[in-house]
Design a protein that fits this description.
Length: 358
């Protein structure tokens, strides 16, 4: 008979993740996740990587995003349905799992909708610190939806951005952002168009939601020295940048095999030159060449960032004693006797009787 092993799983629901953010503070979470992403990207070769698996429909996409090193396996389930707000649902919903590679035991099951917004903003800041001009102080933020405030605060805290030039085709979204960021130490300037918003900006972040081959930024809108943080073009058939913008810039990506399918890069030939960001962070490749160069981070979101976010949540939950333990998989004194969890009778009646008595 084997010794009974404790394989309970730590569960963090949406209220638990919100409690962690409240206890640590959003700025500390953005900085902490950014630091963890930076550390993990420096270990890039240690991870087993693949492009995410996506199921597309006319209304949106559902994706699974796996990654693993020799100790932990992680995956995230995430959707993207731009029409969801009409039905009172978030555009993006997500959860994730951390499991032990040595045994396959699930260690953590966590809600990741809030954490995805934090890790996406943290990833943007990690890339911009490596690629944007150090004196950048003004950012255009095009697309003022659910993730926009997180991007704004990450760039304020981690890059020193002081002024935001705002545009969204839905003026209510911009009004919402301005209410949420009132008193946060940022000058907030609503603009009448995307072209107006990018005028004079050092950094341009595009984070639109519509699943269309859109052209949010055109070559005539790009000024020397800009850094473009293209976040919204993140699945086949969904873009934000005119192809000529990419041709005239130095383009950086997370994981090239995924970005060539999903990012703005999907518009370009298969041999279009790009640099994976981990090579810049590790010093293997240069980032910005000079103050006048235009740089693009074609960000689609990669599973390693979710691994980093899940590890951050696990550590924070343990620090604060947040979350509950679930018996997500059976625990058996004899691991070979799965049938035994039903009780002694083959039809499961003994198990049913015990449950009824309980």
């Amino acid at each position: 008979m084997s010794k009974l092993q404790d394989i309970s799983t730590l569960y963090l629901g949406a209220p638990d993740v919100a409690r962690i953010v409240a206890r640590k503070g959003l700025s500390a979470c953005l900085a902490g996740v950014a630091a963890r992403i930076g550390q993990d990207f420096l270990r890039w070769p240690a991870f087993d990587k693949s492009a995410r698996v996506a199921s597309h429909s006319k209304d949106g996409v559902i994706e699974l995003m796996p990654v693993a090193d020799d100790a932990l396996y992680a995956f995230k389930y995430v959707n993207g349905h731009p029409k969801n707000p009409i039905a009172g649902l978030p555009t993006v919903m997500a959860f994730g799992v951390l499991a032990e590679v040595a045994t396959g035991a699930p260690l953590l099951l966590a809600e990741l909708t809030l954490a995805t917004a934090i890790r996406t903003a943290a990833m943007s800041a990690v890339a911009a610190r490596a690629l944007a001009r150090p004196d950048s102080r003004t950012m255009a933020l095009i697309g003022n939806g659910a993730q926009s405030e997180f991007q704004a605060l990450a760039f304020r805290d981690l890059l020193g951005i002081t002024t935001l030039r705002l545009f969204d085709t839905d003026a209510r979204a911009t009004d919402k952002l301005m209410r949420n960021l009132h008193g946060q130490g940022l000058a907030l300037l609503p603009c009448a168009s995307a072209a107006d918003a990018v005028r004079g900006a050092d950094i341009v972040t595009t984070i639109t939601a519509d699943k269309t081959l859109a052209t949010i930024l055109t070559p005539d809108m790009i000024e020397p020295g800009m850094h473009l943080n293209a976040v919204g073009g993140d699945c086949p058939g969904k873009t934000e940048l005119h192809p000529e913008v990419l041709r005239r810039a130095a383009v950086f990506v997370e994981y090239a095999p995924q970005t060539r399918i999903e990012g703005d890069l999907q518009q370009m030939p298969a041999d279009f030159p790009v640099t994976e960001l981990w090579r810049v962070l590790s010093g293997q490749r240069p980032g910005r060449a000079d103050a006048a160069q235009v740089t693009v981070f074609d960000s689609v979101g990669f599973a390693l960032e979710d691994y980093s976010a899940l590890c951050f949540l696990r550590d924070a939950a343990e620090e604060f004693g947040i979350g509950e333990r679930l018996q997500l998989v059976p625990q058996m004194a004899d691991p070979k006797n799965l049938f035994g969890v039903l009780g002694r009778s083959a039809d499961g009646s003994a198990c049913t009787e015990r449950l009824q008595r309980a």
